[in-house]
Amino acid sequence: MFGKSRQVFVYNKTKQTFLAFRVNVADSVAGRLIGLLGRRALKPDSGVWIYPANAIHTIGMLFSFDVVMIDKNFKVVSVKEMVKPFRVILPKLRAESVIELPAHTIFRSRTEIGDELVIDRYEARKIPKPDGAGQIDRVDSGSMQGVQA
Q1: Residue range 8-23, pLDDT digits in tens
Q2: How do the domains of the chain map onto residue ranges?
Q3: Nearest-CA neighbor of 65 among 93, 51, 44?
Q4: Is the CB of residue 82 less than 8 Å from the CB of residue 100?
């Protein structure tokens, strides 16, 4: 609608669980204003990461959802489960951004205040062919390079 949306995944490093795989980044004025408005529900493993933000409202929303607020180091400073429509979540001073997730995500991932999250882009990469000597120069995972096949 307002250009190409970027997606990230959200991983709870402390609990070693994923919160969501397809989280839209709302870092523009329009993106932050719209957020989840107009949607009838959130698909499983999806969400919206509103940056910067330290408070939200659910006025005009049509469904309940979970909210995780994080600081600049991606440490959880607040969790709210099953936030209903027509509510206001007051500002949290330490919060830098807000992640809106499907209902029950906080419970399923066991996310708590103090947990450290990892938020990163998911990029499908082409797997290179071996060079003939059995060694691969690059591997699908960005963290493993020069691995013997």
Answers
A1: 999 999 999 999 999 9
A2: 7-121
A3: 44
A4: no
